[in-house]
Amino acid sequence: MSERSPERLHADVVDTAPEPVFDPASDPGFADRHGVLTRGYGDRPDPDDPGKVQAMPIVLHLPKVDPPARSAVLEAAAMATVALCFDPRVGAGPEGEPGPWQEPFLAWNEARIRKVARRARGAHWHAAQDVDGVTVDHAGAQARAFVPGPVGELDPRISRLQIGGTDLPHDDPPPPADGVPVFWVQKDLEMTVGKAAAQVGHAAMLFAGALDVDTARAWASDGFPCAVRDADETTWRGLLARVDAGTAVAVRDAGFTEVAPGSITVVAVPGTASARV
């Protein structure tokens, strides 16, 4: 479960990420796809059959030799997740017909939002590129978000990949670039990189939905640049105050894995000139 600010958030954006695969400025369906995120998510009870539970798979490219920085991997995961949510294929076609990904995406969006991150390297990473989704290559890191669907019907090229295992150490990245939204992760929770990837992906969706459509369009045009940073105890207190004030977006976890139900895992704040809380 998640919280969205009751007010629209506004953020300046900078051109620091790869160009999206579509042009939001001339895309007539962008506002409709943004509206899906703005309306929020369903709370449909889970089906009796666990294999029918809806989830979005995310795969992180974690090579054994010279792996990318943890912060870069999480940024790529956030960018890939929100890029898939705005991909024209999750919306309607030019004649109003359903896009090829619209039905499974909406079925997931109307249920309890779940994401499951896995890791891949070598041939398995390359094979995953042939499964419907969106890959982001960012700051030496790569992540791919896939079209959601029932967990029991996951493509074997994805289901064979490990959920746990290799993790990445916390790194010390430079200050976020001016104007880039920051997704602050509660460091004290000590989430694995896979769990954190799912959480920042959710934060990116909530943040996009809390923006007005023109600001969201500008963010999309720049390729959804963002920064992921760890928040210490002092920073976290300030972030929670911003959530209470309605100037930040919080992700509350349902508690299925790793953290207690209701834990606030990530707080998303708009970019500012100083990019500080």
Automatic annotation (TrEMBL):
Region ranges (Disordered): 1-50
Pfam families: PTH2
Gene3D superfamilies: Bit1
Catalyzed reactions per annotation: an N-acyl-L-alpha-aminoacyl-tRNA + H2O = an N-acyl-L-amino acid + a tRNA + H(+)
UniProt xrefs under InterPro entries: Pep_tRNA_hydro_II_dom_sf (IPR023476), PTH2 (IPR002833)
Family, as annotated: Belongs to the PTH2 family.
Stated name of the protein: peptidyl-tRNA hydrolase
The species this protein was found in: Rhodococcus gordoniae
Lineage, opening ranks: Bacteria, Bacillati, Actinomycetota, Actinomycetes, Mycobacteriales
